[in-house]
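haha ok so turns out i had the wrong file open the whole time. this is the CORRECT one, sorry everyone. sequence first:
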Amino acid sequence: MIPQTFIDELLNRVDIVDVIEKFVPLKRSGTNLSACCPFHEEKTPSFTVSQQKQFYHCFGCGVHGSALSFLMEQQGLGFIDAVEDLAARVGMTVPRDQRNDNEEHRKNSQEYFLTTSRAASHYKRCLKDAPDAIKYLKARGIDGGVAAKFLVGYSSEDWQELKHEFTDYDDSAALMEAGLVNEKDGRRYDRFRGRIIFPIRDFRGRVIAFGGRVIEKGEPKYLNSPETPFFHKGKELYGFWESRHSIRQEQRIVVVEGYMDVVALHQNGITYSVATLGTAVTEYQVGRLLKQCSDLIFCFDGDLAGRKAALRALESSLGQVEDGSKISFLFLPESEDPDSFVRSQGREVFERNIAQATPMSDFLINDLTRQSGNLDSVEGKSRLASLFKPIVTRVKAPMIRKLLIERVSALTGLTGADLGASPQAQTYKSFRRVPDTQGAVRSRATSAPSVLKHLIEMLLVFPELARDTDSAHLLEVRPSLQQRFAASEFDLLAELLGFAKEQLNQSQIVECFRGASFEEAVVKASSLAHTRYQEGTIDFERVKEEYTQAWDQLGRLTRLSLQKELLSNRTISSLTEEEKARYRSLTRSEIAPKTD
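then structure:
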């Protein structure tokens, strides 16, 4: 691994403004700089860069991060590549003795990608001398421009066609590793023969694998590269690299099942389409696409196989969908696929169908009611509830989950609690003291559970708020509040208090959590905090006061918890004199953090 100390030093030396200005023209706007967001289409600038905090944030689409994350998003770089890029800008050398990608691995990967790139170029040249393949593509409505965009090529019937490109054909380890050749009885032969070739590029534009389609009849109709160290079917998507700019402009993605579907859609102007690679849609793919935009349309054939594929896509989407995102399903007429439909009906009709696609919630409820039978009967309603309960537990988006439960509740007459709803925590709105006449600890349904989250948000933006006594006070109150707050919230707050002592800024703190168990929580909290505390619009003294009040609130909650524990189903009169003194002490005072 690259040492965290090196990442911190690198971010200290790099100016995020210099990095972003190479891609986006920034204009001064108060204490920040602003521009139209490079990650989504907009006319009014909502993308801000804080030179002081070395952090960027878009109030339109929500992207945010440090100079490292900007390069990763903008250039499609991996973490290590982004580190190397930034290091080169400031003349730093990335420590090599502690890196995962050692020199041998680097050499192998370079050889792999050089081999796949050369093979793609060779197949592309072969297409020019393949009249049957050209005739086939033209019959499918594909012109030379779109074919070139996707690097479409052709493999001849020659069992060793690639030998014309690779002089080391019989000995090349990279050819074998990339799955371009097979071996039998000590003799090598090409994997792809007599097929239209579709090179598969990763999210960085590198050729990582191939798909081949027969021209005439033959089995299998489609043949893919095998899984390799650099190609995993469940993680990649065909056509993303070619669609990336349109996806950002259109802010939607159409997901189909075949190479020809993607190419045909691009030919007809639907240039924001991608395809899975011969497998069902995976959760990883859904999550990765939702990071690009919040509107996914799964487009399937109208036959039984298409319906089954849609159900598998639905299952993979349940745990990935977020509040504010939109996933829908488009079913084409029976016997039609995206390729044939867009060629016969055109772009306008296809996009009209996209606009009328079935929302994920409707598709889910319709399928469950179909399985349940007669909803006028007790048995039908019971069946619907039993099918629904294990499914809704997979939905992490709180608003979508709540609305789904309300719909099924209306169909069955059962309550939300019957269907698996959990008490909804209210938003923590203020830290003002609320009289507690009952003298009991309030339940988790009160505003209290978000006190820790609010402290976390404040520390992410203003780590200088942390006081020397805060860590000790957290240890003091935690035993009494463990039933009220999640352990992960205590752990994350403790981590942030530790980082505050190291005087790291917001971008450095976020980078410290990259790859760690708290990464997702930190990214979400950081985004919320940046939105809440826009630079130039917040009074630091007011934030400091809120910070103190939040700790006071934890002290009051601890006091109430201790009071409840002391009584423990007893009356005050039944307490011993020592216990009564302790109770009176808790009533008069609070466990509160000591000030510096």
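Residues 201 and 216 are 26 Å apart (CA to CA).
again sry for the mixup
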